[in-house]
Amino acid sequence: METTVIIGDGVAGTTAAATLRRNGYEGTIKLIGEEAALPYQRPPLSKAWLLDSDRPRPTPLRPLSFYEDNRIELMRARKVAKIDTNERRIFYSDGKTTKFDNLILATGAAPRRLDLKGADLKGIHYLRDLGDSARLRQALRRPECRDVVIVGAGVIGLEVASAAIDSGKAVTIIEVGGRAMARVASPAATNFITEKLSDAGVRFMFNKRLEEFGAANQHVSSINLENGIEIKADLVLVSIGATPNITLAQDAGLVCDNGICVDQDMRTSDPKIYAIGDCARGDNAFVSGKPRIETIHNASSQAQIAAAAICNKTRPAPVPPRFWSDLKGMKVQAIGIAAGYDLVRRVPTQPPTSLEVHLKYRDRLVAAEVINLRHRQGELVKEISPVSFSDTK
Ligand SMILES: Cc1cc2nc3c(=O)[nH]c(=O)nc-3n(C[C@H](O)[C@H](O)[C@H](O)COP(=O)(O)OP(=O)(O)OC[C@H]3O[C@@H](n4cnc5c(N)ncnc54)[C@H](O)[C@@H]3O)c2cc1C
Which atom of ligand 1 is nearest to the CA of 42? Predict the structure, then answer.
């Protein structure tokens, strides 16, 4: 019987396993994850979970019975150390091996690290997994933790800032660029969000570069900027983006370039090996270039495409990328990719705590952003049209 091995049991890997079965795949499915926990949802780790003391466990992606009922061999706390593409075999870190007919790489990404003096001091946090979030949550609860500094004004940094402000901390966000969420949102949306967070008490410092961390008793005590400014810090979150987990793929000789390179069916340079989710990079019908998209929606869409290819089914029709965020009472939703647009139009909305922004290229809607207008996301998805790859942007 055929075997499909999936490395990584995040939303991409888990969705691939579920979709294979839904498509009628009869072979063996092995879903391997490095973490011990039942596969769980990552988004709450920077949002509700940080504040909710009644929730000792993360929200599982699926109940344990789902894997049993669907004959998915979930192998937790197992790390894959090597892929042998000639032998069609993976090697676990304990030396054991498994043969595969199809292999799906869903290895995700890891936080980008800062390499500065003092970077290994206690009190400096990164956020990717459950363990990181549990440590951050515990640290935020300490009464002696008063001044929180967040390095990086990306989505996760802003979400943690919202949680920290809600728990009564003084919060400063330091950003090397000129605005927040610059990689994923238009200036119109980020200005709206920045204003609301500033009103709530978050202090933003843009165009600032870190020099080093100050220490007291091996614990971080300040952040020192290059212009001599020192900012008191009892807790620091470094949230400066993520790098794709591609070492396994690179060592196996698969083509990688800021992600594992894939075609439209999520096939890597080896036709029996697929890559999906945060670790994969390839064409997307809704944006030119080859983006690497880090969202739940992208991970599950790509999982469905790979599962269709393995089952020889028609590739699912492309759908516009989307993501959401919860920021201090704002439900932020984005559809499409905020890149390559030549016109930004803010649409009048009610109430004043809401926002709708249209991003156009040559008069065509390529992306949209809405805040506190949940019903609009579904409507706008239908209005966004795929990019023609012959477009020159
Ligand atoms: C704190 C946080 C909040 C987020 N909030 C949002 C949000 O609100 N909305 C949104 O759209 N997106 C959000 N994201 C992004 C979203 O969670 C990711 O895009 C998504 O989880 C990617 O799924 P994935 O399965 O590709 O990777 P991951 O979820 O990272 O899963 C990959 C898994 O593979 C495992 N793995 C890696 N290498 C190996 C190996 N060698 N052997 C075994 N296992 C291995 C890892 O341990 C990991 O569990 C958030 C991300 C974070 C970190």
Answer: 17
322-383: what fold? Enolase-like; domain 1 (3.30.390)
Give the closest residue (by CA) to ligand 1 atom 4: 43
CATH architecture type of domain 113-240: 3-Layer(bba) Sandwich (3.50)
List of residues 6+ apart from 358 with CB closer than 8 A: 344, 345, 346, 347, 365, 368
> What DSSP string runs through 267-294?
B-SSTTEEE-GGGEE--BTTBSS-----
Residue intervals in the chain for CATH 3.50.50.60: 3-110+243-310, 113-240
Q: Where in the chain is the domain with CATH 3.30.390.30?
A: 322-383
Residue 32 Cβ < 6 Å to ligand 1: yes
Q: What is the pLDDT of residues 120-159, one digit of tens each?
A: 999 999 999 999 999 999 999 999 999 999 999 999 999 9
Find out whether the beta carbon of 277 lies less than 6 Å from any atom of ligand 1: yes
289-319 tens-digit pLDDT: 899 999 999 999 999 999 999 999 999 999 9
**Enclosing H/E stretch for 161:** helix 155-166
- Has residue 5 got a pLDDT over 70? yes
Nearest-CA residue for ligand 1 atom 35 is 8
Nearest Cα residue to atom 10 of ligand 1: 295
pLDDT score recorded for residue 392: 41
Candidate of 59, 133, 239, 296 to mutate for ligand 1, largest count of ligand atoms within 8 Å of Cβ: 296
Q: How far is CA 369 from CA 250, 339, 341, in A?
A: 36, 12, 13
Give 278 Cα–ligand 1 centroid separation in angstroms.
7
Domain covering 3-110+243-310 assigned CATH 1.10.10.10 in the classification: no
